[in-house]
Amino acid sequence: MRVRNRKGAPEMMAANGQYVVENPEAFRGKWSEKFGNDNPIHIEVGSGKGGFITGMAQQNPDINYIAIDMQLTVLSFALDKVLHLDLPNVQLLHVDGSSLTNYFEAGEVDLVYLNFSDPWPKTRHEKRRLTYKDFLKTYETILVKNGQVHFKTDNRGLFEYSLGAMSQYGMVLNQVWLDLHADTVFAEKNVMTEYEAKFSEKGQVIYRVEAQFQDEMSKMSI
């Protein structure tokens, strides 16, 4: 969803280089240097206003988080949160999620989050869905061996499509939720996005899957 441009957003982003990476290509294979440690790296593709990634960063200070979004305005709202919370384990990238291999080396990322991605419901737009096979191939490339993708959505059609795409790609669906918020155990640690909180208040069902890539040996053993 497009949001109205925020006055001063470009200047705000440019003035906070400690959190906003203007030349992410330069850190390909060197993100541990950027963060100053060897902690695991989790990325969120389509991070929106940053409620999820900043919540996760607070909850897990020993994990490095990278928020990725094409919209500068929404990233500026994420920056607001990072600055307010003073989170040293968060970096923001204003880039296209389809070009992740330009910014991350093979095996450099430990986990990929996809939250409330655009469903692109028309068939002709299938290739734009973040769970389309080409995107899955990109995630597999940058992830560690047997890395995971955690996906949340309120869109049943997109969820069913994604389960099928992941299974067809050869991923293992480790855990599937058809009503995430009905799981009181998971709810204790669940960090909601802004959309999730909004939809939850309306009683809308939230779907979630934890899917894992397999190496060739693992595929052969099934």
TrEMBL record:
Substrate binds at residues 122, 154, 193-196. It holds the Pfam family Methyltransf_4. Pathway: tRNA modification; N(7)-methylguanine-tRNA biosynthesis. It catalyses: guanosine(46) in tRNA + S-adenosyl-L-methionine = N(7)-methylguanosine(46) in tRNA + S-adenosyl-L-homocysteine. Its EC number is 2.1.1.33. Keywords: Methyltransferase, S-adenosyl-L-methionine, Transferase, tRNA processing. It comes from the Bacteria. InterPro entries: SAM-dependent_MTases_sf, tRNA_(Gua-N-7)_MeTrfase_Trmb, tRNA_methyltr_TrmB_bact. SUPFAM superfamilies: S-adenosyl-L-methionine-dependent methyltransferases. One of its GO terms (molecular function) is tRNA (guanine(46)-N7)-methyltransferase activity. S-adenosyl-L-methionine binds at residues 44, 69, 96, 118. Residues 124-129 are annotated as: Interaction with RNA. GO terms for cellular component: tRNA methyltransferase complex. Catalyzes the formation of N(7)-methylguanine at position 46 (m7G46) in tRNA. Belongs to the class I-like SAM-binding methyltransferase superfamily. TrmB family. HAMAP family: tRNA_methyltr_TrmB (MF_01057). This is tRNA (guanine-N(7)-)-methyltransferase. It comes from Pseudolactococcus piscium MKFS47.
